[in-house]
Amino acid sequence: WTEDHTSSLIKFLTAHKLEAGDGMNFKIGVFQAAAAHFLEPPEGVLKEGWVPPAMTRDSCACKNKWAAIQKKYKIVLDIKSQSRFSWDNEFCAGIDSTSEAVWAAYVK
Rounded to two decimals, what is the model's pTM? Predict the structure, then answer.
């Protein structure tokens, strides 16, 4: 998955968030629509002459990517809630040699 594809999936699912259940869990129909969304030309590109990318995404790939995004998001929330870590939205957890012991304890 490229960063653009991941961003596109997140934007698509955000636009369909009313169809999500508890914990932003979507039914397969939403992931099927997301896969079809990847077959459409990007915003601002005419449909005529546009060829979908060779690497297409199916509903299973979209569902699995969303699960991976949610898992990473929960890890980030957990790290942000720890008083021993600093967090910066630009530089993330800011893990360096000075925080090595804190990180080692967290990973355990």
Answer: 0.77
